């Protein structure tokens, strides 16, 4: 494992998120604050789900064998539930804060709910990705041979791509989730929860990376298209953007709606 | 502690509250002038009384005066919230930088994680056979450290009260000298050792001399703001590294908890030393200690007032009486003021154009935040999750403190909320989240 692996995997996993941060979030202080608050909410949700897993382990007295495996599966699924619950809680908080901000300055600078959905999704995603991957990354700088005991040698690459897909999925889930909450379409929340459960549960198939990664990316593309239409995009605007005929296609040029 | 800095521009030569308001709606100057005399007393009175009614009445008066009658008091808080976001980021960046420097040093330079003795302020050792004994020793260490801090603060307040300015300035200069020269020399030596880089003594002395001399000039006299901020961040990081190295494990955590309680008490209680320091400075209308506060706005010199001689008769800008504690020397906390320094006797100063309002944070806050994150990085079993969790917790605590600052508009301690969050997240991440995430990562499960 060399510096090449470290930098390669780091940029695979965090490159798009970093680009999104630099181009859309870093310029506006309010967005940075909401991003960090979103990261904080994800952290609290992780804390609570770890607490439950820890208690469950204590109750079963750390017996080895299949008990541990089932406990882990239970922990993962519970963690997904808790994350989505906290996403909803963050939505409520943002709604209150946004109303407060709107009442001060009805003209400008109050971020719209769509923007906050994107920012919160990115916050969740970045924190989730960082917590999943950063220890693995730091280990990749040190000496060792991957897969010397017969495991797959693509451990780092797989982890990097999985982290990337999780980050992007959180962004899209955030957009779809908040929009559904705004329009009171509760079944959409259920769909988001189910896809999150699906993506997490698929990782149980590791180390059979192929099907796991491919299906995760397919789900991501579906979510991306859905989020695009939910956020107000259309085929026409996409065409204008791609042909560079749209005057304000860069996100930071857009006025909040 | 956090303060808002009053703007120095012409029509906003007033304290933080009215300046925030007047940016929204220009107020008649005469009205503000007449308010000013009452404001100081009202401010002082608000310090002593802890009711909120006076706040509201004060706000109401100012609202009426400022030509926006009938605006409900609650709106002012939201007005300040709009200003708050930029200031929050202006504080996030230096705090993050300081923490990054400390964590990078801890993770790479072995020297700061080795145990090489303890400070005389923490005489009890933690190499004891039993857990109870260790806990007792750490509590005793904390008591000694906190009492040293209290004694130093009271000493400083007394010095200030009896106008021994030369002594105070000499003390500050001595401690900056020590930080900028001695600790930098040690730090540079250890970094060079870690990376096995050879440097001859003449080059070393030239480097350290230049670094230290420019630092003294920037911090105590005039210099570009960015350079001053950079030096303040560096000396905070150096101080934090010293604390991380020389404070034993459990003592460090107990001291962090105790210092945030002390900060809360010292800033908010009517007879707290910091509050008395602020009040004295307010009565005399002068700045307390320049160069021990990180200022995030554009001032050319910390400690020089830019007054428009044609504006009100008052020589001073009434500042926000918000104190911050900071440590200016090795184990000797001195608690400088935190407000917009205004020196008496400078009526002919030129105005600065377009000076932005800013927030000030004491260097002690930087130091203790970095100690928390550095300790998390040093002892976290090579785990980055704990460090990151503490980092996010501290930033959120700072954000909440700034929000409270915008709401209450008085000096607030910056340590309690952040350190509480940091401690909670350190212990829970280290004991609960780490096993969970390690197990998930080894099976490559993703949540």
From TrEMBL, chain A:
Top-level taxon in the UniProt lineage: Eukaryota
Q: Which GO terms describe its molecular function?
A: endopeptidase activator activity; protein-macromolecule adaptor activity
Q: Does the keyword Transmembrane apply?
A: yes
Key word Repeat present: no
Its placement in the membrane is given as: Multi-pass membrane protein
Q: Which residues cross the membrane?
A: 6-25, 32-55, 70-94, 115-135, 155-179, 186-205, 211-231
Q: Name one GO cellular component term.
A: gamma-secretase complex
Q: What is this protein called?
A: Gamma-secretase subunit APH-1
Q: Which organism is it from?
A: Octodon degus
Protein encoded by which gene: Aph1b
TrEMBL record, chain B:
GO process terms (BP): amyloid-beta formation; calcium ion homeostasis; intracellular signal transduction; membrane protein ectodomain proteolysis; Notch signaling pathway; protein processing
Its keywords, alphabetically, are:
Endoplasmic reticulum, Golgi apparatus, Hydrolase, Membrane, Notch signaling pathway, Protease, Transmembrane, Transmembrane helix
| InterPro entries hit by this protein | Pept_A22A_PS2, Peptidase_A22A, Preselin/SPP, Presenilin_C
One Pfam family, please name it: Presenilin
Q: Which residues cross the membrane?
A: 88-106, 139-160, 167-189, 201-219, 226-244, 250-269, 388-408, 414-433
What is the uppermost EC class here? hydrolase
Q: Where is this region: Disordered?
A: 1-59
Q: Where is the composition biased (Polar residues)?
A: 19-28
Q: Which domain of life is it from?
A: Eukaryota
Instruction: Please provide, in alphabetical order, the Gene Ontology terms of the cellular component aspect for this entry.
Output: endoplasmic reticulum membrane; gamma-secretase complex; Golgi membrane
Query: What molecular functions are annotated in GO for this chain?
Result: aspartic endopeptidase activity, intramembrane cleaving
Compartments where found? Endoplasmic reticulum membrane; Golgi apparatus membrane
Q: Give the Enzyme Commission number.
A: 3.4.23.-
Indicate how the chain sits in the lipid bilayer. Answer: Multi-pass membrane protein
PANTHER family, alphabetized: PRESENILIN, PRESENILIN-2
- Membership in a protein family: Belongs to the peptidase A22A family.
Q: What does this protein do?
A: Probable catalytic subunit of the gamma-secretase complex, an endoprotease complex that catalyzes the intramembrane cleavage of integral membrane proteins such as Notch receptors and APP (amyloid-beta precursor protein). Requires the other members of the gamma-secretase complex to have a protease activity. May play a role in intracellular signaling and gene expression or in linking chromatin to the nuclear membrane. May function in the cytoplasmic partitioning of proteins.
Q: What is known of its domains?
A: The PAL motif is required for normal active site conformation.
Q: How does it assemble?
A: Homodimer.
Tell me what this protein is called. Presenilin
Highest lineage ranks of the organism? Answer: Eukaryota, Metazoa, Chordata, Craniata, Vertebrata
């Amino acid at each position: 494992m060399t510096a090449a692996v470290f930098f390669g995997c780091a940029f695979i996993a965090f490159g798009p998120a970093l680009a999104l941060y630099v181009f859309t979030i870093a310029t506006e202080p309010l967005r940075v604050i909401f991003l960090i608050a979103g990261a904080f909410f994800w952290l609290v949700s992780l804390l609570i789900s770890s607490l439950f897993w820890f208690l469950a382990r204590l109750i079963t007295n750390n017996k080895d064998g299949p008990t541990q495996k089932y406990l882990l599966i239970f922990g993962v699924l519970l963690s997904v539930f808790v994350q989505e619950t906290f996403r909803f809680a963050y939505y409520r908080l943002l709604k209150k804060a946004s109303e407060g901000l709107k009442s001060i300055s009805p003209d400008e600078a109050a971020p719209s709910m769509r923007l906050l959905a994107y920012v919160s999704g990115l916050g969740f995603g970045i924190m989730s990705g960082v917590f999943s991957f950063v220890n693995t990354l730091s280990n990749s700088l040190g000496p060792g041979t991957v897969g010397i005991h017969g495991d797959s040698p693509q451990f780092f690459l797989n982890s990097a791509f999985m982290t990337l897909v999780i980050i992007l999925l959180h962004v899209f889930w955030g957009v779809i989730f908040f929009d559904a909450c705004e329009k009171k379409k509760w079944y959409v929340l259920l769909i988001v929860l189910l896809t999150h459960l699906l993506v997490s549960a698929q990782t149980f198939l590791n180390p059979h990376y192929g099907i796991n990664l491919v299906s995760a990316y397919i789900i991501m593309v579906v979510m991306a298209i859905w989020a695009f239409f939910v956020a107000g995009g259309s085929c026409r605007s996409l065409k204008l953007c791609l042909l560079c005929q749209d005057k304000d296609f860069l996100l930071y040029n857009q006025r909040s709606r | 502690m956090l303060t808002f800095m009053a703007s120095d521009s012409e029509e906003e030569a007033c304290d933080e509250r009215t300046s925030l308001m007047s940016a929204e709606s220009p107020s008649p100057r005469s009205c503000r002038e007449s308010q000013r005399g009452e404001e100081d007393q009202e401010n002082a009175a608000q310090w002593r009384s802890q009711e909120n009614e006076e706040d509201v009445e004060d706000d109401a008066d100012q609202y009426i005066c400022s030509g926006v009658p009938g605006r409900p008091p609650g709106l002012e808080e939201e007005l300040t919230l709009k200003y708050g976001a930029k200031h929050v980021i202006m504080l996030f960046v230096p705090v993050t930088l300081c923490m990054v420097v400390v964590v990078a040093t801890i993770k790479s330079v072995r020297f700061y994680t080795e145990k090489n003795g303890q400070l005389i302020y923490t005489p009890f050792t933690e190499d004891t056979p039993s857990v109870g004994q260790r806990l007792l020793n750490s509590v005793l260490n904390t008591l000694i450290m906190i009492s040293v801090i209290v004694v130093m603060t009271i000493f400083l307040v007394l010095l200030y009260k009896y106008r021994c300015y030369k002594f105070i300035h000499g003390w500050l200069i001595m401690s900056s000298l020590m930080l900028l020269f001695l600790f930098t020399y040690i730090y540079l030596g250890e970094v060079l050792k870690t990376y096995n880089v050879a440097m001859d003594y003449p080059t070393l002395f030239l480097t350290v001399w230049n670094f230290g001399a420019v630092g003294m000039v920037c911090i105590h006299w005039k210099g570009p703001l960015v350079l001053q901020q950079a030096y303040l961040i560096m000396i905070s990081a150096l101080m934090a590294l010293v604390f991380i190295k020389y404070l034993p494990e459990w003592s460090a955590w107990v001291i962090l908890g105790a210092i945030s309680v002390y900060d809360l008490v010292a800033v908010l209680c009517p007879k707290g030393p910091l509050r008395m320091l602020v009040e004295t400075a307010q009565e005399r209308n002068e700045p307390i200690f320049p160069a021990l506060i990180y200022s995030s706005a554009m001032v050319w010199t910390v400690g020089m007032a830019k007054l428009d001689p044609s504006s009100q008769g008052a020589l001073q800008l009434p500042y926000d009486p918000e104190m911050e504690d900071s440590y200016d020397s090795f184990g000797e906390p001195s608690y400088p003021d935190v407000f917009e320094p205004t020196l008496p006797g400078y009526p002919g100063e030129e105005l600065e154009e377009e000076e932005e309002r800013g927030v000030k944070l004491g260097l002690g806050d930087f130091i203790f935040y970095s100690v928390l994150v550095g300790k998390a990085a040093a002892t976290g079993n090579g785990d980055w999750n704990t460090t990151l969790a503490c980092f996010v917790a501290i930033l959120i605590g700072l954000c909440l403190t700034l929000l409270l600052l915008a709401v209450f508009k008085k000096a607030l301690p910056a340590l309690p909320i952040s350190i509480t969050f940091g401690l909670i997240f350190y212990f829970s991440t280290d004991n609960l989240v780490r096993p969970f995430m390690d197990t998930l990562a080894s099976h490559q499960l993703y949540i």
